[in-house]
Amino acid sequence: MSKGKDTKPHIGIFGRRNNGKSSLINALAGQELSIVSDVAGTTTDPVKKSMEIDGIGPVILIDTAGIDDTGDLGKMRVQRSREILKIIDLAILVITSGEFGPTEEELITEFSEQGVPYFIVHNKSDLIPLPEELKTLLKEKYPVPVLNFSTKVNPDISGIIAVLRRLIPETAYTAPSLLGDLISYGDVVLLITPIDIEAPEGRMILPQVQAIRDVLDHDGIAVVCKEREVDAFIRRMNPKPALVITDSQVFLKADASVPAGIPLTSFSILLARQRGDFQNYLKGTPHISKLKDGDRILILESCTHHVSCDDIGRVKIPRWLGNFTGKNLEYEVVAGLNKLPRDIHDYAMVIQCGGCVITRKQIINRLKPAVDAGIPVTNYGMAIAWVHGIYQRAVAPFTGQDSGKPDYL
User: Fold this and answer.
1) Is 189 strand, coil or helix?
2) Domains in the chain, ordered, with CATH?
């Protein structure tokens, strides 16, 4: 299950079958969004529901299958529910009838391992209130709020909303700026945006739109042109741009056209810093020069799209890497959140796309197996800058280092 284009905070609702998870979602949303039944196991797969929470804003609630589901199909449902731990920002564990055991303890352990904040709701308290001894035990063992609740009798959701506001990480709904710390009031930012076969008809790609908006949000002036117009236009520009952002595919052309004294980077590298594992990208990118014949490269696309004949991840990056290294390399592309076709240790390097449609947490979790295994990771823009010999210049706006040529040239 992927976040897709939903970069809003994701809240997962977990618990055993027939504990009232779907009823809780309906109470929070104030409408019947989930199927509610007295038959255990009505919810079979994680289902997204959009709503607005006062004080937080738009969120996605995820209704999951019962964590005590049985049988082969039930185990598959439980596994799908557990997989969403990689993308959620907050979890609500729903218990009922004073029942709490190894099933819940195991789930809480997974919350902690994934760094997911959570709290506990004892539902159906109109039938069986939360026993005081269990409430005391939970508070001693798990330092999180434990709330009594009933979706049937006077369902007052104010307490749950208050806890949601307090526990949901601020980073889940306030994304850091793309370039606000790089420009000042009135600065001109030049954006180089090629219109090629991959450009959507009549529109601009999302990272370009995001960059333009961020320039405007920080009182800058955004100027947009294609790569063919850069040379003539930049000679006429007065004042000169405080920053130039280019599509990675024309990095080499931009580097030749933009005078050395003007900072230059790419949309993909901006995204890498905002929502990627930037420090590990910085460490991992130089490994490109150490690749050997037969090495297998994993390319991670975080969205699904129509594959063009000159696709950046599937065609251009492999071609550039092959030309730069002179090695016979193997490539595997995995789109969305699809499972990897082989063990992470079988890869010599991982290259992540910019991640314009997902959150930082999703990218970090996607890359975590490689980082934990010591496998170098990088992203599209940084890899492209490296093979074109302009890596130091491309990351200099963020590292504060000299933007001269790297040592390997």
Assistant:
1) strand
2) 10-172 (3.40.50.300), 188-270 (3.40.50.11420), 281-387 (3.40.50.11410)
Name residues whose C-beta falls within 8 Å of residue 379's C-beta, 6 or more positions apart in sequence. 268, 269, 271, 272, 276, 281, 351, 352, 353, 354, 355
Instruction: Report the C-alpha dihedral over residues 57, 60, 66, 67, rounded to 10 degrees.
Output: -80
What tokens were used for 39?
Answer: 């038959």
Residue 142 DSSP one-character state: S
Between 389 and 307, name the one with better pLDDT. 389
Residue from 26, 14, 34, 20 nearest 80 by CA: 14
**Tens digit of each residue's pLDDT (9 = 90 or more) over 45-95:** 567 888 887 777 888 889 888 888 878 777 788 888 888 888 888 999 999
Q: To 10 degrees, the CA torsion angle through 34, 40, 46, 49?
A: 10
Q: For residue 107, how many C-alpha atoms fall within 13 Å in the half-sphere facing its CB?
A: 28
Residue 11 phi/psi, 5° resolution? -120, 120
Whole-angstrom distance, CA of residue 9 vs CA of residue 42:
25
Q: Answer yes or no: is pLDDT of 116 > 80.
A: yes
From residue 11, give the alpha-carbon distance in Å to each of 19, 31, 151, 324.
17, 17, 18, 44
Rounded Cα–Cα distance for residues 98 and 282 (Å) = 50
Tokens representing residue 37 in the block: 């039944």
